[in-house]
Description:
The protein is of the alpha+beta class. Helix content is 20%, strand content 33%.
Amino acid sequence: MCRHAAWLGAPRALTALIQEPPNGLLTQSYRPRRQRHGTVNADGFGMGWYAAARAEPVRYRRSIPIWADANLPALAEIARSACLLAAVRCATTGMPVEESATAPFTEGPWLLSHNGRVARDAVRDLADGAESACDSAWLAAAAFQRLRAGLALGDALSEVVVKAAAKDPSARLNLLACDGAALAATVWGDTLFHRLSEDGVLVASEPLDDLPGWQAVPERSLLLATTSDGVRVQPL
Ligand code: GLN
């Protein structure tokens, strides 16, 4: 089970998800505290953010452990935006360890990450193709296909999760996606938390620190966050 995290609110640097908090994704890559499947997240990492000079998000991902990228700390310090998403990966047995299998996946304005596993047969019918044979890449392709067709962020994730789970009842399908102005996340088989602050909301597989205010999002639900409407959680 990988670990992912996102921020929506006043502009922050990616260090706010990765190096700054005591249990940020850097620490979670070798010492996660609530991980139910897998022990370390050393099979790659990625991050995405939005920059004024570009319509689409900027995505940086690699298939090496996050602690092994000496260029990352400075990059994460200057990569700032109102909407951020990052992930560290623990590849599921049998899945390729390669850059194209590493979250965040991106298309158009969207970034997407997956914690979990699903039988590939269960997702092959949901998308026309994917950039990697990895289950997460297929889930991302399935969501992007629906987003391209006009579905709202939360509806696209819900549809993919419900359809994949119908075909593979043992699937774990925690998805996290954003479009620069909104975040959506599903809880289906693994942990998810959120923490509201004065200037925005953090969403993460597990708390990034021990500050008060982290709330567990219930199993089988969808979290939606926008800058205008705040955070909503609804059953899936
Ligand atoms: N199944 C996905 C992969 O192999 C996600 C793994 C995870 O959540 N650990 O990358």
